[in-house]
Structure formats: structure tokens, C-alpha cells
Design brief:
Helices cover about 30% and strands about 20% of the residues. The protein has 5 helices and 7 strands, in the order E-E-H-H-E-E-H-H-E-E-E-H. It starts with 17 loop residues before the first strand and ends in a 5-residue tail after the last helix.
């Protein structure tokens, strides 16, 4: 029987060029081409829990799967982006408080349209509910909404 050698040298949590955030996602400090092997670069761009860009404290994921899309998830996404002054190309607020992402499916189709904030599910969203959700988070952070 062959013994397995430790692979900690290639494990993302052991590498000094990355850090584990409080949401169990890995954020790389340098572009993958600068410090990481090519296989890491392809893994970091494929898996959702890896990110080459630092994310905000609150990650808002808006579902755009079929059920959510037909129940008008796009106006919800547009309202969230408008409220936070972010775009698809610049998804994180300047204060690093919010990051807005779209996902193919959150697996809560019966509650559509759905979004999550750090894995807390907000069902039956509307643009008005999205505004209130952001106001509530800002109040929680001690910011005037």
C-alpha cells in the first residue's frame, strides 16, 4: 500500500499568498499569474468560493435562475446596484461594506425571486424590499440610511 504524502504545500490555506476570509472563501492578494501555478489560476476562476478580488463585508447574491428571472429578479439587481452605486464590472462598494453578485441558482426556486446576504436567504424579493434590506444593514453598521 502506498502512503500519501502531505499536500499542505499546495493547499490554499497554507499558502502565504492567500488568506482565508471570515466567510470561508479564499481571496488572493496577487494575481494568479504573479505568484500561483497555472493550475491554481484555473481553479480560482472556476470555483465560486475563490475570488481574485477582495469582497465586501456583506456579499449580496441575487439569483438569476429561471424561476427568479421570470419573477423579475433583474429589476431587483438593478435597484441594489443603484442603491449601492456599483456595477457588474465594479461589484464592491468603495467602503468595502457590500459586494453584489449574480448567481445562476440559489436552490430556493419556490421562494423566487431570492437573494442572499452572507448566506441569509431573503425570499419573495422586490425592489422595495431590496432597498429596505440595504437600509437595515446600514443601520446595523451604524450608518445613516
Amino acid at each position: 500500500m502506498r502512503s500519501l504524502k502531505s499536500t499542505s504545500a499546495i493547499h490554499p490555506r497554507s499558502s502565504p499568498s492567500c488568506r482565508i476570509s471570515r466567510r470561508n472563501t479564499t481571496t488572493f492578494r496577487n494575481p494568479p499569474s504573479a505568484t500561483l501555478p497555472e493550475s491554481w489560476a484555473s481553479a480560482t476562476t472556476f470555483y465560486e468560493n475563490f475570488s481574485l478580488e477582495q469582497k465586501g463585508k456583506y456579499v449580496i447574491k441575487v439569483c438569476d435562475g429561471t424561476a427568479c428571472h421570470v419573477r423579475k429578479s433583474v429589476p431587483i439587481l438593478e435597484e441594489i446596484r443603484k442603491q449601492l452605486n456599483v456595477t457588474e464590472k465594479k461589484p464592491t462598494t468603495d467602503d468595502m461594506l457590500f459586494t453584489v453578485e449574480t448567481v445562476s441558482c440559489l436552490g430556493a426556486c419556490g421562494l423566487a425571486p431570492v437573494c442572499t446576504v452572507n448566506d441569509h436567504v431573503y425570499p419573495a424579493m422586490t425592489p422595495e424590499k431590496a432597498r429596505e434590506m440595504i437600509r437595515e444593514i446600514r443601520r446595523k453598521e451604524g450608518l445613516d440610511a
